[in-house]
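Hi again,

Forgot to attach this to my earlier email, sorry! This is the prediction with adenosine monophosphate bound. I've pasted everything inline since the attachment limit keeps bouncing my files.
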Amino acid sequence: MTTEILPAGEKAVALAAQLLRAGQPVAIPTETVYGLAANALDAEAAARVFEAKGRPKDNPMIVHIDMLDRLPQVVSAFPREAQLLADAFWPGPLTLVLPKAAGIPDAVSAGLATVGVRLPAHRATRAVIAAAGLPLAAPSANRSGRPSPTSARHVWHDMAGRIPLILDGGDCPVGVESTVVSLAGGPTVLRPGFVTAEEIAAVLDRPVATADGAHYAHTQAPPSPGMKYRHYAPEAELLLLDGTLEQFIHYLQENAAEKPGACALCFAGEEARLPLPALAYGQAGEAASQAAGLYAALRRLDAEGAKYIYARMPAGGGVGQAVRNRLLRAADFNVISL
Ligand code: AMP
Ligand code: MG
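Structure tokens for the complex follow:
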């Protein structure tokens, strides 16, 4: 199959809609990461996405809509707390897990009675959904297990020859996947993201649990199926070092300076102080910039042939929670407290 890559203008959006209506997968930009979209009402179309990604069949997809009017096609109930969160954070990087509508096939929800739904902010994403006239199931457009794509070039690297079309909408501004919150039972953050648990608790005016603990890795029945898989991983071996810059420098001098293929993943401005080739993934203390740069940095180190990546851990609060979560999973929880 030849894969076309086109700027996400009007003509390309129309072509994408045509392919999607014919049951084909198309890679599209969103504000979080690039998604590999398919008709969410068509089990065969969904199966093509799992096939192209090499995604485990028990990992459900998030369904994207362009307007609230499309909700009844996706969910069978939209409780008051969902409405409050939608009012506060949609369009935007928040996914709500709710009871699924009858028309959503098991292939999309991985057999669960619930489905994740999101109304994205990116203009091109919504233009494609509107042109197709369909809710679109879209996981990240990477080969399963690899860092998510935040540019059309990243998608090309993973998907060339496997899908017919990539829409190029530039770099994704958020850079990490949506916050996933379940409203079945008490509100629970299943995956941290740009919308934080604190912000959700403030809108709902009650405590919000977080279920994204390391202990779910490799377990059989976690609260959210994606928790049990390794995600976002570079080809290089990744080790996270949690401590100050001085401790980081000291650790690298003692343990990594002579190691062939070793490199450092650090914060902007630190490169020159490190005893290894180094790449920054964001500003120290600015979690949003770290989120925006993380996947591109992991992919670039792979492209440059890194064998070992020693990474600085960000502070954990707010959006930093999402960055830490992605790094921990990318490293398969391989972390040292300095
Ligand atoms: P991705 O498509 O790569 O952004 O991953 C979507 C993630 O959302 C999955 O790995 C799940 O962990 C989570 N998710 C989607 N739908 C559900 C659901 N119905 N219940 C719980 N978690 C979900
Ligand atoms: Mg993914």
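The CA atoms of residues 106 and 112 lie 7 Å apart. The chain has two domains: 4-216, 237-337.

That should be everything now.

G.
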